[in-house]
């Protein structure tokens, strides 16, 4: 009976150690909110808001995001992490995309010809 209890206690201790280590290994990389843009997001700011202060559009999911009523100059900030990029595209559904915007960077762009923004996996 004592052997069974010791074996059970040893197993529980080992399982707790594995769980603790796996939580650290999968921790999200440190990213900071930037100009009101949450960690892991791409943000679009209101027209002519310079400097960028509070986003009017916050995008989280990978893939294309169609825009509407976005004309004139806007800040677009990529606050994603892990090498994810974003692209401004002249077509809907991610068609005709320009150069990727690297994580931790932004562009002050005329969104009049832009019809979608893609969030690209690393």
Automatic annotation (TrEMBL):
Keyword Signal: yes
Signal peptide from the UniProt entry: 1-27
UniProt KW keywords: Signal
Protein name: Peptidase inhibitor family I36
């Amino acid at each position: 009976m004592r052997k069974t209890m010791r074996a059970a206690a040893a197993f529980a201790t080992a399982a707790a150690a594995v769980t603790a280590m796996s939580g650290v290994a999968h921790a999200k990389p440190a990213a900071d909110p930037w100009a009101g843009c949450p960690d892991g997001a791409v943000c679009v700011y209101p027209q002519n808001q310079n400097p960028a202060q509070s986003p009017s559009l916050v995008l989280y999911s990978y893939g294309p995001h169609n825009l509407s009523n976005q004309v004139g100059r806007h800040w677009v900030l990529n606050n994603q992490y892990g090498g994810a990029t974003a692209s401004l595209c002249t077509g809907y559904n991610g068609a005709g995309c320009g150069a990727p915007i690297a994580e931790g960077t932004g562009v002050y762009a005329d969104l009049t010809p832009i019809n979608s923004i893609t969030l690209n996996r690393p």
